[in-house]
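pinned: reference chain
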Amino acid sequence: MKVKICGITTPEDLLLADRAGADYAGIVLASGSKRQVSLERLRELGAVPVRLKRVGVFVRATPRQIARAILLGRLTVVQLYGCSFRQAGIEVWYATPGKHARHTIVLDAYPGLGRVGDWNHAARVARTRRMVLSGGLTPDNLDAAIQTVHPWCVDVSSGTEASPGHKDHQKVLAFIRKAKS
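pinned: its structure tokens
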């Protein structure tokens, strides 16, 4: 099971996710989000030596904005809500199925709100596509989510936070441990 710890805002939390065994770290670049990082902070996060992949999360961004962020933050994956992007060497995750169904999709019923969606619907989607399950996941409900949906990857943000944008180390460790067991 792949794991993405999203809402990373500090170098300390990026290192925590990496050392705990996460496969991906989500860095939010969507304006209006409580977890949005500045381009300067993105550059700082890009300089941190980690083995995990950095995922830039974008909402209605232009290709130019996405390309700039890729360079600044050393992103290898982009997660897109309401926009599209193509660049060699960059993996793209779309937030909804449809015309981009051949790509990895992120199923998050209520993006950024930490609310659980319809896991039965998610299970149907996961049978036909490489899917990242997101939305309301916590260490407490992760086992049930995985058993119901069978996603390729689980994605958590608020479920591992002490406060918005600040990770709770024990929750991060517990989430990754459960996902990888």
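why pinned: Residues 169-180 form the longest helix (12 residues). The longest strand covers residues 53-59.
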